[in-house]
Amino acid sequence: MGKRRGPRELLRGLTKRQKRHLRDFGEEHPFHDKLLLLLLLHSCFPFQSENSDKSSTESDSETEVEQVSVYHKLLATLKTSPESESEEEEDESESEEAEESEAEMDSEGSQETGEPDGGEEDKNDVPEEEEATDTAEQTLGQEQDDGADTSCDPRRGATEEFTDVKHESEFSLETNFMEEESGDCNTDTRDGNPFKQHMDKELEEKEIEKMSTLSKTSSQSQWPRLGQLTFSSTLEKPKTLKADKEVDVKQLYLHKPLESTWPKVNKQFLSSVNKPSDSSFTPLQRELFSIMNTYRDLFYPERNALTNGEEIRHAYCLHALNHVLKANAQVLSNNAKRRDQKPGTGTDDYRDQGLTRPKVLMIVPFRECALRIVHIFISLLEVNDKKKIDVSNKKRFKGEFGSDPEEKPPNLKRPEDYEAVFAGNIDDHFRIGVAILQKSMRLYAPFYSSDIIIASPLGIRTVIGAEGEKKRDFDFLSSIEILIIDQADIYLMQNWEHVLHLMKHINLLPLDSHGVDFSRVRMLNLNNWSKYYRQTLLFSALQDPQINSVFNKHCFNYGGQVAVRNVPLTGSISHVVVQLPHVFRRLEAESVTSVIDARFQFFISKVLPEYRDAIMSHTLIYVPSYFDYVRLRNYFKKEDLNFTHICEYTKKAAVCRARRFFLKGEKQFLLFTERFHFYKRYTIKGIRNLIFYELPTYSHFYSEICNMMKATDNGVDATWTCTVLYSKYDAQKLAAVVGIDRTAQMLQSKKNVHLFVTGEN
């Protein structure tokens, strides 16, 4: 390799557009060269005459028309008007000026955190679901039905990239048999095995009808570590769930290798407090796993990335891997029995599979989460240093899901929870299939040859597609037996519609047989009752109506649902360190659907007039919903108010200008979205008046925003104000901010509530 050119040499001879692309994306874009683009287009889309010898007899007129249209679309991108060139030059100069001003303000810098990108915010404010729709057609064209990762080298063909002929026979369940020396097949035949009890139970049609029509009955329990539990079921009578005080690994019916590897893998979370008889689980893991192991649905809304996040991840990875190993061991054991049976013998005793192979679906927000999960799987499967498991495509996986520590910008000051959530590779568009067979693991397995699928909501959405699209597939979700949704609160910041779209397409009858042996398929799958056997594990950092709705309306487990329902006693308002009067103004709404319009009318008629006076300058309006933000922004423009705005789609240059205008008082109002704060965590200086258009999704955001006022050097504390709008439908968010006792009082009273926080409350 030749000597690497310096930065100045790289910039010489580049046009302004090329320099701008180099700054934004870190590489030169060859398509700015029109001559190079023309040569590339002619090489990719050659025009062939009717008598050309190279024309294929298999090509049809439809394909030719499609190629010509793509060619002309690319040619159209070469036409650049003088106006667009001038706009780009202006944007470039503004960006350079903004970078200088930002360094002067607080040198906070910016870190890419997987938030949706947008163009100029005023013109191109669009929700991210539109972006997902645009990318779906592009990615699906490369994947077909295998559902492998999309971050691979695009130069590699789909057949070459996703077909692993070398490992097909090695990882096929139908052509392999249980190794005699392993003895793992005996694990599934023990009495009281939760796996067999759950999967072998045969429901009757009247029970299915009962679950579909009748409402659930619930009961309450108090556990030492989890706290208040609510158990609800249609088939079972209300009963009190009792927590196991001590757990012996041998009594959990774990698959044989896991009994020895789990204590070693989980050792990092254990302390000397644990009793010798209970040395494998932390108190939290013990209670969570005892519920998971009964195959009931579980909702735990107290996951914290700083404290218990990794504990929970290890617990559900143990449960998922235990389930897969038991299911595969049952299939391999039955393969041997079928091989040795006499011809003409009945085969109904060997129904041990679903309509498709994937059994576990794990939804996580970032690639870093998938990386940690796979590492846990490998650690659990390796009994000791001498018995290493064979992991296919491990190097490629580390390259695509790992991260470079040097990529992180230096001197970034962010809260600890931010650093914990956005650690490592934070790309939110991925999916990968994992096949596990005895002592081997195959990464990047095609979905229909995978046991476990790890994906982000966006990654799985682009495979499922939308109604009307030609290339879409969701048959691989037909026989999912365990669904794990981790860090569900982050999906509220990404796109919750992707989660709902997944829940609508899981456990449906497949459109194709995909080569399944129907004599081995369980009757529950053939009857389309898979959703009544599926276990759903839902973990979140908060309780939210949208998350609760998924757990209540999309979970049909016949074993019942267990939800942790602890109420906050104090609230995040106790963490406000500035002396600040808080005014909670209640608005009335007839229903949940009408509260959006009621909030807007209440704000423009009752709240905003009080802040129109010039004396009420430096007013920040915190808006959790992007759609409410757009509505307010349009109203402010219509009323010709002196304001600026920042949202998740705003460019960096525009953000710097808005912060500078607001700090200097040139703009009276600043519209500020919650998702921008979630992804950036900038400190907004100059706040004197604060309006929460709606209570924040994350309760600690309330104290963070209020504490930004101490960053203001000038101004008198007595002039600071904080106004919060709430309704009776905001009970959960209100309790997280002010505590359960104050919430009860505020919901009973229809008057405005004034609270004064001194920093010691």
UniProtKB/TrEMBL annotation:
<feature type="region of interest" description="Disordered">
    <location>
        <begin position="1"/>
        <end position="21"/>
    </location>
</feature>
<feature type="region of interest" description="Disordered">
    <location>
        <begin position="48"/>
        <end position="196"/>
    </location>
</feature>
<dbReference type="GO" id="GO:0034511">
    <property type="term" value="F:U3 snoRNA binding"/>
</dbReference>
<feature type="domain" description="UTP25 NTP hydrolase-like">
    <location>
        <begin position="295"/>
        <end position="562"/>
    </location>
</feature>
<comment type="function">
    <text>Component of the ribosomal small subunit processome for the biogenesis of ribosomes, functions in pre-ribosomal RNA (pre-rRNA) processing. Essential for embryonic development in part through the regulation of p53 pathway. Controls the expansion growth of digestive organs and liver. Also involved in the sympathetic neuronal development. Mediates, with CAPN3, the proteasome-independent degradation of p53/TP53.</text>
</comment>
<feature type="compositionally biased region" description="Basic and acidic residues">
    <location>
        <begin position="337"/>
        <end position="352"/>
    </location>
</feature>
<feature type="domain" description="UTP25 C-terminal">
    <location>
        <begin position="572"/>
        <end position="756"/>
    </location>
</feature>
<feature type="compositionally biased region" description="Basic and acidic residues">
    <location>
        <begin position="152"/>
        <end position="170"/>
    </location>
</feature>
<feature type="compositionally biased region" description="Acidic residues">
    <location>
        <begin position="84"/>
        <end position="134"/>
    </location>
</feature>
<dbReference type="InterPro" id="IPR010678">
    <property type="entry name" value="UTP25"/>
</dbReference>
<dbReference type="InterPro" id="IPR053939">
    <property type="entry name" value="UTP25_C"/>
</dbReference>
<dbReference type="InterPro" id="IPR053940">
    <property type="entry name" value="UTP25_NTPase-like"/>
</dbReference>
<comment type="subunit">
    <text>Interacts with CAPN3; the interaction is required for CAPN3 translocation to the nucleolus.</text>
</comment>
<dbReference type="GO" id="GO:0032040">
    <property type="term" value="C:small-subunit processome"/>
</dbReference>
<keyword id="KW-0539">Nucleus</keyword>
<dbReference type="GO" id="GO:0019843">
    <property type="term" value="F:rRNA binding"/>
</dbReference>
<dbReference type="Pfam" id="PF06862">
    <property type="entry name" value="Utp25_C"/>
</dbReference>
<keyword id="KW-0597">Phosphoprotein</keyword>
<feature type="compositionally biased region" description="Basic and acidic residues">
    <location>
        <begin position="187"/>
        <end position="196"/>
    </location>
</feature>
<dbReference type="Pfam" id="PF22916">
    <property type="entry name" value="UTP25_NTPase-like"/>
</dbReference>
<feature type="region of interest" description="Disordered">
    <location>
        <begin position="333"/>
        <end position="352"/>
    </location>
</feature>
<comment type="similarity">
    <text>Belongs to the UTP25 family.</text>
</comment>
<dbReference type="GO" id="GO:0000462">
    <property type="term" value="P:maturation of SSU-rRNA from tricistronic rRNA transcript (SSU-rRNA, 5.8S rRNA, LSU-rRNA)"/>
</dbReference>
<keyword id="KW-0217">Developmental protein</keyword>
<protein>
    <recommendedName>
        <fullName>U3 small nucleolar RNA-associated protein 25 homolog</fullName>
    </recommendedName>
</protein>
<dbReference type="InterPro" id="IPR027417">
    <property type="entry name" value="P-loop_NTPase"/>
</dbReference>
